[in-house]
């Protein structure tokens, strides 16, 4: 059973703050987490708010050295939360995180991995990483979030951890295939170098790759890897507590149709992100989260 919320107006304000951040984003994450009991839901909203803050640093307009300082400040803040049992947390997000960490025994390493993933976006712009680097990036920015999540959901078993990693990588690869144009505007390209070179493309800059007639074939190979990871997650679910992991299942069912639509469209229109309508998201939440 989750511990009671800390008393005090500041803690109530912190919980309200992270709820609003998550709600305002309008993402599939919000719909998946709404089915959780209040304590677990607030803990997940705290994780989301943390991820948004470090992601905003990595995606911001500041020089890379300033971004790294901002991310390192977050690393020190997380270290302080663990060292002081949350005492002295001085922002709403940190106060909300302190409750989540204390209540669900979250692993500090997973927070540091997320920050390290954001640092990969500041250590020079990522353009066509090799497969090993891409896998590491996906593990850090999505798999580590999954590891924190299953602890909050209530299944910390080895199969649940493996499920979290497989699903996290699948979700991140789907994001990459959906956001090609937006990433290119920031000078980024997350498609694997091996696939680009295998299709005879030598001018490895984002706009050139996106303009190549070979782009659909490159994306199809990445999509196949994403499908493999979704299939792995499906298999691992058989050994997990399916009721505890319902929020993750809702996330998966929100993202898989996006990947299917991208594949069907063949990356002919990069402005079409394959997104689901609000009624569709609600139906998925009811179908997989509440039934």
Q: In short, what is this structure?
A:
It is built from 14 helices and no strands. It has 291 residues and is an all-alpha fold. 42% of the residues are buried.
Please, could you describe this protein's structure?
α13 (246-265) crosses α14 (278-290). 42% of the residues are buried. This protein has 291 residues and is mainly α. The chain has helices at 9-25, 28-33, 38-59, 64-83, 92-104, 108-120, 131-153, 158-178, 180-185, 193-198, 206-211, 215-237, 246-265, 278-290.
Task: Provide the descriptors you would attach to this structure in a database record.
291 residues; disordered C terminus; 2 domains; Farnesyl Diphosphate Synthase; 14 helices; mainly alpha
Average of per-residue pLDDT values: 87
Distance linking N and C termini? 23 Å
Shape: globular
> How many separate helices?
14
Structural class: mainly alpha
Proportion of helical residues: over 70%
Strand element count: 0
* Rg calc: 19 Å
Q: Largest sheet at a glance?
A: none
Uncertain spans: 1-7, 287-291
What would CATH call the class of the largest domain? Mainly Alpha
């Amino acid at each position: 059973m989750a511990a009671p919320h800390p008393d005090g107006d500041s803690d109530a304000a912190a919980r309200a703050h992270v709820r609003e951040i998550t709600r305002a984003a309008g993402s599939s994450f919000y719909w998946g987490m709404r089915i959780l009991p209040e304590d677990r839901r607030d803990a997940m909203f705290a994780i989301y708010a943390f991820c948004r803050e470090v992601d905003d640093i990595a995606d911001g307009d500041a020089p890379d050295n300033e971004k790294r300082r901002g991310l390192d400040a977050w690393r020190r803040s997380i270290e302080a939360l663990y060292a002081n049992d949350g005492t002295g947390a001085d922002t709403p997000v940190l106060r909300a995180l302190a409750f989540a960490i204390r209540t669900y025994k979250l692993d500090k390493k997973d927070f540091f991995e997320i920050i390290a993933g954001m640092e990969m976006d500041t250590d020079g712009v990522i353009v066509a990483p090799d497969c090993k680097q891409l896998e590491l990036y996906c593990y850090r920015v999505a798999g580590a979030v999954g590891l924190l999540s299953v602890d909050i959901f209530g299944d910390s078993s080895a199969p649940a951890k493996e499920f979290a990693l497989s699903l996290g990588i699948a979700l991140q690869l789907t994001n990459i295939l959906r956001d090609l144009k937006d990433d290119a505007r920031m000078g980024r390209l997350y498609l694997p170098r091996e696939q680009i070179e295998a299709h005879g493309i030598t001018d490895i800059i984002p706009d050139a790759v996106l303009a190549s007639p070979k782009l659909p074939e490159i994306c199809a190979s990445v999509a196949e890897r994403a499908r493999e990871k979704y299939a792995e997650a499906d298999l691992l679910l058989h050994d997990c507590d399916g009721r505890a992991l319902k929020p993750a299942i809702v996330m998966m069912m929100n993202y898989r149709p996006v990947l299917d639509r991208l594949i069907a469209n063949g990356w002919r229109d990069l402005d079409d992100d394959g997104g689901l309508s609000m009624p569709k998201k609600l139906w998925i939440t009811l179908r997989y989260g509440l039934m």
